[in-house]
């Protein structure tokens, strides 16, 4: 059966929307009429999943759901699977509990594949932008080992942690962005609207204005005449830079440059390696072999240079090297992570030590970002105050000398 998205009119003439399963559009229309609904539109819920043709699998046509929604769906599936319900009934129940039509249609499409006899990992492979390779690998390992419920619990915890971290970062950035926005708005308003009016006071004098005032007037004229062109130029520069960095070779050069910048390189390495260690830990805990876990965990690295390093680590491990020795030879993974991996290999608790390493790095990264934000906020206030002070001084200097100027 296929999931269909519909729009219909109820007896009161109100438009209602939803998702139903059926063998054809005609059957869906019959179901709607039996419910005293008048069909307006009936279409396959996720047409690109039903087409089964690679040429139609365009990225912008693929369904997407948020990390929070994915965590919620995964938690519901874990609870239902651990209740010993059949898998297709678990998917059906999770779809019925979802309030979003997109998520409901997605789950019903996955259920359709499972009902046809495919594994859950294969069915999720129809939606790679929702269920990434790590997610599918863990589900596949859980299905084969017979502990799908605990694996889904780990995935739910992982996605909830991602959501929590992202939300915390967004909340930390709100205040600095507000300060920057207010500073820019105040300065632009003064330069475009206030300064030209005040300059008229000195327009009829024959005395030369102070250098600071002349600079302010020139800046005001430039802002009034060319501000839109400057904004357009910045937008073009950003778009051009993104296009220039699109080829992997150039993007790798850019990523290598980021790793050479003091301070910034530490943040980039901490963010990526923490994600790498966490992913590797849950993959191995789910029963995925070490080499396959290393290959998948390497894909979560956003820095292409670090991704190449992870591939070299996998090659050294495949050749017989221990994991901690391969990580040390790379030279970019944090020493604390290498030592904890060595301890885990020696004690037979590699998954636990990897998770502790990821937790320690995330905690250190959070403290570093918190310190930066704490310093940035007063610096922005001081900068905004300094800009306003310069503008006020540029206006007041000729006023102080106004009696001399009019003689």
Automatic annotation (TrEMBL):
What transmembrane ranges does the database entry give? Answer: 172-195, 226-245, 379-400
Q: Provide this UniProt record's keywords sorted from A to Z.
A: Calcium, Cell inner membrane, Cell membrane, Membrane, Metal-binding, Protein transport, Transmembrane, Transmembrane helix, Transport
Give the coiled coil ranges. Answer: none
Query: Keyword Ribonucleoprotein: yes or no?
Result: no
GO cellular component annotations of the record = plasma membrane; type II protein secretion system complex
A molecular function annotated in GO for this UniProt entry is: metal ion binding
Tell me which InterPro entries the record gives. Answer: GspF/PilC (IPR003004), T2SS_GspF (IPR011850), T2SS_GspF/T4SS_PilC_CS (IPR001992), T2SS_GspF_dom (IPR018076), T2SS_GspF_sf (IPR042094)
Every Type II secretion system protein GspF domain range: 74-196, 276-398
Gene Ontology terms: biological process: protein secretion by the type II secretion system
The membrane-topology field of this record reads: Multi-pass membrane protein
Record-linked PANTHER family: GENERAL SECRETION PATHWAY PROTEIN (PTHR30012), TYPE II SECRETION SYSTEM PROTEIN F-RELATED (PTHR30012:SF0)
Protein's recorded name: General secretion pathway protein F
Q: Which organism is it from?
A: Kineobactrum salinum
Q: Which gene encodes it?
A: gspF
């Amino acid at each position: 059966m296929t999931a269909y998205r519909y729009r219909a009119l109820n007896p009161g003439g109100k438009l209602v929307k939803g998702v139903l399963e059926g063998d054809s559009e005609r059957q869906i229309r019959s179901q709607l009429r039996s419910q005293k609904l008048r069909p307006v539109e009936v279409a396959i819920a996720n047409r690109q999943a039903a087409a089964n043709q690679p040429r139609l699998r365009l990225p912008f046509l693929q369904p997407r759901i948020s990390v929070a929604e994915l965590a919620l769906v995964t938690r519901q599936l874990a609870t239902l699977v651990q209740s010993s319900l059949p898998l297709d009934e678990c998917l059906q129940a999770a779809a019925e509990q979802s309030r979003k039509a997109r998520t409901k249609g997605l789950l019903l499409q996955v259920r359709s594949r499972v009902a046809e006899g495919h594994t859950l990992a294969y069915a999720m492979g129809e939606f790679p932008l929702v269920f990434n390779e790590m997610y599918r690998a863990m589900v596949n390992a859980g299905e084969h080992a017979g502990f799908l419920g605990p694996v889904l619990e780990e995935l739910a915890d992982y996605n909830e942690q991602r959501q929590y971290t992202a939300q915390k970062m967004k909340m930390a950035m709100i205040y600095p962005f507000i300060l920057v926005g207010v500073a820019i708005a105040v300065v632009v308003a003064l330069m475009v609207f206030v300064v030209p009016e005040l300059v008229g006071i000195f327009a009829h004098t024959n005395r030369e204005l102070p250098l600071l005032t002349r600079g302010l007037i020139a800046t005001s004229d430039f802002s009034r005449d060319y501000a839109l062109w400057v904004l357009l130029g910045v937008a073009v520069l950003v778009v051009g830079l993104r296009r220039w960095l699109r080829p992997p070779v150039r993007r790798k050069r850019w990523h290598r440059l980021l790793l050479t910048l003091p301070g910034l390189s530490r943040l980039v390495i901490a963010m990526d390696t923490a994600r790498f260690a966490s992913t590797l830990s849950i993959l191995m805990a789910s029963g995925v072999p070490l080499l396959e876990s290393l290959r998948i965990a390497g894909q979560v690295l956003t820095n292409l240079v670090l991704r190449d390093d992870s591939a070299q680590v996998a090659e050294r491990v495949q050749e017989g090297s221990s994991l901690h020795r391969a990580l040390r030879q790379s030279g970019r993974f944090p020493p604390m992570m290498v030592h904890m991996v060595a301890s885990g290999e020696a004690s037979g608790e590699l998954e636990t030590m990897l998770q502790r390493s990821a937790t320690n790095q995330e905690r250190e990264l959070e403290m570093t970002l918190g310190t930066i934000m704490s310093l940035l906020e007063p610096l922005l206030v001081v900068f905004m105050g300094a800009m306003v002070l310069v503008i006020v001084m540029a206006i007041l200097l000729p006023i102080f000398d106004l009696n001399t100027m009019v003689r």
